[in-house]
Amino acid sequence: MPAVELAKIGKQLGLVAIEGISADHYPAVREVGLEISLVGSHGFKEGPTSTDHHTAVEAKLRAAIDTAVQFGSPNVITFTGMQVAGMREEVAKQNCIDCWKRVIAHAEENNITLCLEHLNSRDDSHPMKGHPGYFGDDVDLCIELIQTMDSPNFRLLFDIYHVQVMHGDVIRRIRQLHPWIAHYHTAGNPGRCEIDENQEINYPPILRAILETGYTGYVAQEFIPTWENPVESLRHAIEVCDI
């Protein structure tokens, strides 16, 4: 549905923020009374694993940081990009670090956190359910990159759905990795569907585990609705996550 309509419904249902929409809609949704939880930047395909993308990635991240400052958002998303044929893992990791190092000072100066999203590479059934060939498909590799960056403004976007697909053991990973986590996404598995009883992830104990870590940031609903009424899908997800 249109972004502003979705924002109005989300506000009525009790949400406090929205993301994943065009920045063109930010002024209108802020007027609705929602915050911007995460600002988009470069896409997940053309990321810093390839030096061919460095100039564009740097420009888009800098612009996204400025947009985040303008609209009061704490976070900007980033990705590794796809694997490059024939490139050794160590080279790909260093390429990512080199690119992010060029923008991290701008993020730090503006108190904006760059959130590196881990994505699954297993599901090839739909372009938004999985991302075959994505370099950062191992959450431990993502943590290694974050630790190498060594900045309080470079953290992990822990997508519960993607972690479940690639690794499982979600609660243990949240407890182990929480010092490096700045943002969460939800969805049901398999299928990136509603977070109901027809999928395998049990969300209430996961949300309790997140709270127990002292986390105070956003948990964003990122499932693809399958119910006849998508508003009821969203209402249900809010209730499940209201711990």
UniProtKB/TrEMBL annotation:
<dbReference type="InterPro" id="IPR036237">
    <property type="entry name" value="Xyl_isomerase-like_sf"/>
</dbReference>
<feature type="domain" description="Xylose isomerase-like TIM barrel">
    <location>
        <begin position="29"/>
        <end position="239"/>
    </location>
</feature>
<protein>
    <submittedName>
        <fullName>Hydroxypyruvate isomerase</fullName>
        <ecNumber>5.3.1.22</ecNumber>
    </submittedName>
</protein>
<keyword id="KW-0670">Pyruvate</keyword>
<dbReference type="GO" id="GO:0008903">
    <property type="term" value="F:hydroxypyruvate isomerase activity"/>
</dbReference>
<keyword id="KW-0413">Isomerase</keyword>
<dbReference type="InterPro" id="IPR013022">
    <property type="entry name" value="Xyl_isomerase-like_TIM-brl"/>
</dbReference>
<dbReference type="InterPro" id="IPR050417">
    <property type="entry name" value="Sugar_Epim/Isomerase"/>
</dbReference>
<dbReference type="Pfam" id="PF01261">
    <property type="entry name" value="AP_endonuc_2"/>
</dbReference>
